[in-house]
Design a protein that fits this description.
Blueprint: H1 3-9, H2 16-35, E1 44-50, E2 53-59, H3 68-80
Antiparallel strand pairs: 1-2
């Protein structure tokens, strides 16, 4: 699942600049988890066309978005940017 699909599925609206910044944090989180041995899947790049702009993005495993590390990174990003995310998807206990 690409990050943009994840954001749309969870009704999270970000500007393009915010998506890029969030994407950098997510890929960093993924690479850290891979180095530490929590994940062993290689990422694939897929081509997308968004608003007439062609680009390559990473295709993450679906279960990655449910990991505690991803939720921690997402929570921190949304708190720093003071973005309101509906629901309890990113509430950590």
């Amino acid at each position: 699942m690409i990050l943009n699909s994840f954001l749309k599925a969870n009704k999270i609206m970000l500007s393009n600049v915010q998506k890029m910044a969030f994407g950098r944090r997510v890929i960093s989180c993924y690479n850290t988890m891979k180095i530490n041995g929590f994940i062993d899947a290689e990422l694939k790049k897929v081509n997308i066309n968004e608003n007439g702009v062609k680009m390559q993005v990473y295709d993450y495993p679906r279960d990655f978005f449910q990991t505690k590390n991803f939720k921690r990174v997402a929570n921190k990003y949304f708190r720093e940017k003071k973005l309101k995310v509906e629901g309890v998807l990113f509430q950590l206990k």
